[in-house]
Amino acid sequence: MQTKNSPSVFGGALLVTGSCVGAGMLGLPIMTGLVGFFPSLILFFIAAIFMTFTALLLVEVQQEFSQPVNLSTMCGFSLGKVGRFLCWVTYLFLFYALLVAYTALSGHHTSLLLEHFLSVNLPEWVGSLFFVILFGAVVYRGTTPVDLLNRFFMVFKILAYFGLIFVGSRFIDTNLYSRVSWNYLLPAIPIMIISFGFHNMVPSLVKHFGNDSRKVVLSILWGVLMTVVVNLVWQWVALGSIPVGGKDGLMDSYQKGVDAAQSMSMVLSTPSVSLFSNALAFFAIMTSFLAQSMSLVHFLQDATQVKVKEGQESFSITCLALLPPLLIAILGPNLFFSALNFAGGICTMLLFGVLPVWMCWIKRYQRGHRSGFMAPGGRVVFIVLFLFALFVMVYQLSSMMGVIGGN
User: Fold this and answer.
1) Rounded distance, CA 318 to CA 315, Å?
2) Rg, C-alpha atoms of the chain
3) What is the full DSSP assignment across 53-72?
4) pTM
């Protein structure tokens, strides 16, 4: 029986949804819109199912330990030094790729806010610089300021989301839903995968619920379901109001590295849409940037064993985490989609796809450990998940190297 002060499944589900719904959702309608609304639904649910299954595999692997451990420790236990190193390197690439994406996108929206409030027209690279310096200082101050500011921004992100859905729904043209272009189906996979990337929260959920696997699993299932609803409603409005062709349309926005909120603002050109779309974009970028920056700083501090003062982070490590993405974003301001594709198609697929399947296979079929919670499915399911992850990784690498066409 649940006590009055015991953590609720609803609270856990909100943690999962909060991890998923961030700046990545801004790019989602651009990629899925190129495919078409209804064809992309198929892939959207495949991505949701795939990421849910692999998260449940991590919950099962956690049963090997008496207390919550991070993914690196799980990989070291199951796969040895090679697995731990592979996890470490991939985690590093994932964090940096995401920060490049968010920093690149921040330049435009920060410049818009500076122009609106200070009547100063600044280049986008100045916007990115201002963004990183201002909120990087918050990250340097430590976890407590980041947590408080993140909660504050989450409120405004939610308000902006519902505001944009409300005003944007009045401009929907149902004819735009009829588009079908299967050529863009595979390039859309990485950003869909990113939209369900909450696996780094699994150890936190296990700790949150005191190793109660039932509550962890229910939190994951409800959290993924809420993420599906949030993103589908967002896509319904965005794809119903942004045309594919023309200036600031889906194709033009993709080529320029422009997010869906900005595209909707330019296409509809109404004050209310502009207000809510820019607010949603800014707060989505902000919450994602704070969370990923804090995670990367902690990751680097743990890896380098740098001593830090109580209540704040290492200044040198904070610079190491934030300056490389800033430099890359300034040199390539249109890298939003490229960075997300790399993060989703390669890093996330390896870290949250291949490795969980591999570890759980060893747990079940080599060590014969079958006590406690076990994710649904057997060898066939494991093989399908593993091959799907490998396929996406090979496709993304081939696309990046120019071997095949695509993004």
Assistant:
1) 5
2) 21
3) HHHHHHHHHHTTSSS---HH
4) 0.86
pLDDT at 159: 93
Say what the pLDDT of residue 405 is.
Answer: 60
Q: Give yes or no for a contact between 352 and 276, defined as CB atoms under 8 angstroms apart.
A: no
Quick: pLDDT tens for 352-370. 999 999 999 999 999 988 8
Which token pair is 329? 């974003």
Distance spanning both ends of the chain, measured CA to CA? 51
Please state which architecture CATH assigns to domain 9-400. Answer: Up-down Bundle (1.20)
Q: How many residues does the chain have?
A: 407
Helix (H/G/I), strand (E/B), else coil: 275 = helix
Please say if the pLDDT value at position 52 is more than 90: yes
What is the rounded CA–CA span in Å between residue 144 and residue 177?
Answer: 44
Domain coordinates in residue numbering, the chain:
9-400
Q: Which two tokens stand for residue 293?
A: 């920056």
Q: What is the DSSP string of 85-144?
A: HHHHHHHHHHHHHHHHHHHHHHHHHHHHHHHHHH-----HHHHHHHHHHHHHHHHHH-HH
- Other beta carbons within 10 angstroms of residue 66's beta carbon come to 7
Distance CA 342, CA 337 (A): 9
